[in-house]
Amino acid sequence: MNYSSIAEKIIDLKNTDLALLDKLIQSRQLSNGYNEEMQELHNRNAGILNEIIDAIGYENYESKCRLPYDQFFIESTLLS
Length: 80
Fold this sequence. Notes:
- It is a single chain.
- The chain has one domain.
- The protein contains three helices and no strands.
- The chain starts with a helix and ends with a helix.
- It is mainly alpha-helical.
């Protein structure tokens, strides 16, 4: 799996979002609720992010905390 290309894709999604946000700010189109164009972009980005998560998984609290605990348990057991 090419994590570099995935990272670049996520950065592209963020930059596209920020560019649209800037455009909407400049044209004063943000004050009337959730802008339809922004909503469409967010829905598209959410779909892409879901595909990325399906491909590589999602790191959560349990997965981050479990590994150090497991490592500690294994090391302390081996050293006992």
